[in-house]
Write a structure and sequence with these properties.
The chain is globular and about 95 Å long. It starts with 12 loop residues before the first helix and ends in an 8-residue tail after the last helix. A hairpin with a 2-residue loop joins strand 15 (520-525) and strand 16. Helix 7 (281-295) packs parallel to helix 10 (417-423). The chain has one domain (65-266, 281-631): 3-Layer(aba) Sandwich (Alkaline Phosphatase, subunit A), CATH 3.40.720. It is built from 16 helices and 17 strands. With 639 residues, the protein is of the alpha/beta class. The chain has helices at residues 13-27, 89-96, 110-119, 154-159, 226-244, 267-270, 281-295, 319-352, 391-400, 417-423, 437-440, 468-476, 538-546, 581-597, 606-610, 625-631, and strands at 65-70, 99-105, 164-170, 196-200, 213-214, 217-218, 250-255, 359-364, 441-447, 457-459, 463-464, 483-484, 487-488, 512-517, 520-525, 528-532, 561-565.
């Protein structure tokens, strides 16, 4: 028999003691060191020991339920709650019994807004300056689309503080390469703090045949409209949770795909608006600004910006054009009213179950301004990046297929640009225009019967999507954690709106904010704002592709900056760049500082995307980026 002999020699008594200790630990002859947080006593026997059971985590006494509602692609002047001509009775009721925030801002496009909302940090700081879609991300800290673990989400924070957490609808910040049933799942909603998720991971999906996920697996849709399905699921999550743990607070993140393309809704909703928009987009804007003044959500002396030169005078359109364009808007309006109805089902459930009074509700009506991605004619099923499709052919296709607008066949239905400007009243520009209030300014409603004394109040404090997380924590009485899952957390950059809930004159705490979407950029400080448009943007590129033209290249260094005093000129009609050049230079310098602090460099624009100079998962330099974008339309949309 071979006898084991240690392959070492003791050179000193001290080393002998060390080796002995190591052997004891190796073979289990000594008790492991107890957890530093363990408060009991461990003796040799049970009689000599004292048990310790940590108390289960509970939310602070009286902590409210929390519901965040985030809509998609809704302009400031769309919903009736903020003066629009589209009826949203649920939003009206919440606003009339809560507060309307008129100076709230998003990032100008969906994924960066959602990343900033969920983390309370700027989109670049959490690595989502662009998208989490493979072809729209890049291998840089601000652009890889992967939210790091040291930027914890609201769901992680609330779950660790005694809440159950649910998300339904659009998520939009899971990297494409992770979005299969093989995972990894750490950047799926369930990996970011949500107990349950039901919805889709990408930016857009077919509302009748969605790319549907439940928790950590794809599931088969049941054929109903997705918004109907997510509403049922949201109510069922809360019902089951309250039955199992009555009174335990919950967090619900309700983010429908609505009203992002494709605009799909039952005819019973869109037909309610038949003939309502026959007067056209110019008249729509005039009516809306008048309503907004009556509501007090804009200054009484506000003036509409001039019609964008890309948009035709409605009076000069042909009868066929008016017919098609009006139908697009009827469908969009029906879609928004239907979405409001579905959100109303959740609100009614909370009321009937006696939970509404102690539920803190935030409704952000849009994750950016109205969408310009429907081109000047609107789209039904067209590939927006297809080359060789003239404007005339595009319109003729829409006329021939007008009956498909809003149906399951309209896989990319989006209204014409004129309606984007109309539903964005009183602002100029639209989604993706991070340099403009039209891209970044959205209505916000806060409803909290238990905590808001004034009903129907107006709040004008400057705020940003990053502010919703710290406001929620303040109201719930929860401190931002230093660690989540033993990972030290980065600072939260948003500012709380808590003091403004019952003080209309409370100071605006959010003093500085940068904006950047694919070249368009801006910087805000204390009421002053400098911004630069960067062309060609995606709309210009699509237009050029449709005409078989090559877009004119631009240079970041030659972009023209404009300057506005938003305290006096809220919808940016008076460019002060020449009058106050020193102020402009001061703000441009501040933009550079913010860009460096928030991982924004290198600056990436739409030409970098379409020029195949960023992440191509196939490694094929010759593969057409348009094909990549539309290869998996359920999760690969640019919208």
């Amino acid at each position: 028999m071979k006898i084991f002999k240690p392959n070492f020699k003791f050179k000193s008594p001290q080393k002998g003691l060390l080796i002995t200790a190591l052997l004891v630990a190796q073979f289990g002859f000594a008790q492991n060191k107890s957890d530093a947080n363990y408060k009991g006593v461990i003796g040799k026997t049970l009689a000599e020991s004292k048990e310790y059971w940590p108390q289960p985590v509970k939310a602070p006494a009286g902590a409210p339920n929390v519901v965040w509602v985030l809509l998609d692609d809704v302009g400031f002047g769309a919903s009736s709650a903020f003066g629009g001509l589209i009826q949203t009775p649920t939003f009206d009721a919440l606003a009339n019994n809560g507060l309307r925030y008129t100076n709230f801002h998003t990032t100008a496009i969906c994924a960066p807004t959602r990343a900033a909302l969920l983390t309370g940090r700027n989109s670049g700081r959490v690595h989502v300056s662009g998208f989490s879609h493979t072809v729209l991300s890049a291998g840089f800290p601000g652009w890889d689309g992967k939210i790091p673990s040291d930027k914890g989400t609201i769901a992680e924070i609330l779950r660790d503080n005694g809440y159950n957490t649910f998300a339904v609808g659009k998520y939009g910040v899971t990297p494409d390469e992770d979005a299969t049933d093989a995972g990894p799942f750490d950047r799926w909603p369930t990996g970011k703090g949500f107990d349950h998720f039901f919805g889709f991971l990408g930016s857009q999906t077919d509302q009748y045949n969605p790319d549907l996920i439940e928790d950590q697996a794809h599931v088969k849709p049941d054929g109903r409209h997705l918004t109907d399905q997510i509403t049922d699921k949201a109510i069922s999550y809360i019902t089951k949770q309250q039955k199992a743990a009555p009174g335990k607070p919950f967090f619900l993140y309700y983010a429908p795909g609505a009203v992002h393309a494709p605009h799909q809704v039952a005819a019973s909703w869109s037909d309610q608006y038949k003939g309502k928009f026959d007067e056209g987009w110019d008249v729509y804007r005039e009516k809306v600004i008048a309503n907004q003044k009556k509501l007090g959500v804009i200054p009484a002396n506000a003036v509409l910006p001039e019609r964008n030169p890309l948009i035709a005078d409605w009076k000069k359109l042909t009868p066929d054009q008016k017919k098609v364009y009006a139908r697009f808007m009827e469908v969009y309006a029906g879609y928004l009213t239907y979405t409001d109805h579905e959100i109303g089902r959740v609100i009614n459930y909370l009321k009937e179950s006696n939970q509404l009074d102690n539920t803190l509700i935030f409704v952000a009506i849009g994750d950016n301004g109205a969408s310009k991605e429907g081109t000047t004619q609107g789209t039904i099923s067209q590939n927006l990046f297809s080359q060789g499709v003239s404007e005339e052919k595009n319109f003729q296709s829409n006329l021939d297929n007008i009956g498909e607008i809003g149906t399951a066949k309209g896989l990319n239905t989006n209204y014409p640009l004129g309606w984007a400007q109309a539903t964005n009243a009183p602002f100029k520009n639209w989604k993706q225009d991070a340099q403009s209030e039209g891209g970044t300014r959205n209505p916000l409603i806060i409803h909290y019967p238990k905590g808001i004394k004034e009903k129907g109040g107006i709040r004008n404090q400057y705020s940003h999507v990053t502010d919703i997380l710290p406001t929620t924590l303040d109201i719930a009485g929860i401190k931002a954690p230093q660690y989540i899952r033993e990972i030290k957390q980065d600072i939260i950059q948003g500012s709380s709106l808590y003091t403004s809930l019952n003080d209309a004159k409370a100071e605006s705490l959010h003093k500085v904010q940068y904006y950047y979407i694919f070249g368009n950029r801006a910087i805000y400080k204390d009421g002053w704002k400098a911004g630069a448009a960067h062309l060609p943007d995606s709309f210009a590129l699509k237009s050029a592709l449709g005409k078989n033209e090559k877009p004119t290249a631009t240079n970041f260094d030659t972009d023209v900056w404009e300057l506005y005093n938003l305290n006096e000129d809220f919808n940016e009609r008076n460019n002060l760049a020449k009058k106050y050049p020193e102020k402009l230079e001061e703000l441009k310098k501040l933009f550079e500082e913010q860009a460096k602090a928030n991982n924004l460099y290198p600056l990436i624009d739409w030409q970098d995307v379409l020029g195949r100079r960023i992440h191509n998962p196939s490694g094929d330099k010759n593969q057409n980026i348009q094909e990549l974008i539309h290869k998996a339309p359920q999760t690969g949309s640019t919208n």
